[in-house]
Design a protein that fits this description.
Length: about 240
C-alpha cells in the first residue's frame, strides 16, 4: 500500500522556503519541485533571447517552449542546460515580476507543476509509516502552491521571517556564491525583496497569500535544522 502526501510551502522572498523544502524532501525521500526556479528559468530565457519582459505574448511563447527539468535534488535544467547558478543572480530577480504576473506564463507553468506533483517518479522512494504503509510524495515551494497549484495538499506551510533577516541571509548567500553584483549591498537586496513581495502580493493572478488552512512558521530565530524538523513533525502529526 502506498499513500500520496503533498507538502505545499509558500511565503515571501528569502524566508527559507527552498532550503527547508529541499532538506525535508531529502529526509522523507520525497520529490522536490522549486516552482520559483521555473519562473526564474523563463526570465533567464527571455533575457538571453532579448525578448522584452513586458511583451506579454512573446514571453508566453518563451514559457510555452521552455523545457524545464529538475534532474536531481536542487538542480535545474533549461533546454538541456544546467542553469542552477545562472537563475540565482540579481539580474534575474530584477526582471522577474512582469513575468510572474503574466497570466499565460502562470497557466503554462501551473500545468507543468501539477503534472510534476503527480508524476510519482520512481526516484521518490518515500518512507514506511508504522512499518506498514508506504508514504510517497512531493514538496513544492513557491507563492501560490497551497492556494492555487495544490489546494488539496495534505500539508500547507507558510514560511515567514523578518525583512532584515531575509535580506542579510540573501546577501550572505550571494556573497558565498560569488554572485553579488558590483556594489550590491544588504540595503539594495532588502529593497528588492520588498518590491518583489509587494508585486507578488498585489498581482491579479495567483497572488502571494497564506492559504486558510496553512500553518505559519517564522524562521527568523530558528536554525535550518529546527525549521525542517518542525515541518517533519507536522507531517507525522497529519498521518
Ligand atoms: N534558519 C536559517 N538560518 C540561517 N540561514 C537560513 C535559514 N533558513 C534559510 N537560510 C538561508 O537563507 C537564504 C534564503 O533561503 P531560501 O531557502 O533560498 O529562501 P526562499 O526559498 O524562501 O527564497 C539561503 O541562503 C538559506 O541558506
Ligand atoms: N509559485 C511561484 C514561485 C515564484 N514566483 C515568482 C515570484 C518571485 O518573486 C519569483 C522568484 O521566486 P523564488 O522563490 O525563486 O525566489 P526568492 O526566494 O523570492 O528570491 O518568482 C511566483 O510568482 N510563483
Amino acid at each position: 500500500m502506498s499513500r500520496l502526501f503533498r507538502i505545499a510551502i509558500d511565503g515571501p522572498a528569502a524566508s527559507g522556503k527552498s532550503t527547508t523544502a529541499k532538506l525535508l524532501a531529502k529526509k522523507l525521500g520525497f520529490g522536490y519541485i522549486d516552482s520559483g526556479a521555473m519562473y526564474r528559468a523563463v526570465t533567464l530565457k527571455c533575457l538571453d533571447q532579448g525578448v522584452p519582459i513586458t511583451d506579454t505574448q512573446k514571453v508566453q511563447d518563451i514559457a510555452h517552449h521552455a523545457k524545464i527539468r529538475f534532474p536531481s535534488l536542487g538542480t535545474v535544467e533549461l533546454d538541456g542546460k544546467d542553469v542552477s547558478t545562472a537563475i540565482r543572480t540579481s539580474r534575474i530577480v530584477q526582471n522577474i515580476s512582469p513575468i510572474a504576473s503574466n497570466p499565460g506564463v502562470r497557466a503554462t507553468l501551473a500545468n507543468q507543476q501539477r503534472s510534476l506533483a503527480h508524476a510519482n517518479d520512481p526516484a521518490w522512494s518515500g518512507f514506511k509509516h508504522k512499518n506498514t504503509e508506504k508514504i510517497r510524495g512531493v514538496v513544492m515551494d513557491g507563492r501560490d502552491i497551497g492556494t492555487v497549484i495544490l489546494p488539496d495538499a495534505e500539508l500547507k506551510v507558510f514560511i515567514v521571517a523578518e525583512p532584515h533577516v531575509r535580506a542579510q541571509r540573501r546577501y550572505d548567500e550571494l556573497k558565498e556564491k560569488n554572485s553579488l553584483a558590483q556594489g550590491e549591498t544588504v540595503e539594495a537586496i532588502a529593497q528588492d525583496l520588498e518590491a518583489r513581495d509587494e508585486a507578488d502580493r498585489t498581482r491579479k493572478v495567483s497572488p502571494l497569500k497564506k492559504a486558510k488552512d496553512a500553518i505559519e512558521l517564522d524562521t527568523s530565530h530558528k536554525t535550518i535544522d529546527e525549521q525542517v524538523s518542525a515541518i517533519e513533525k507536522l507531517v507525522y502529526d497529519r498521518l
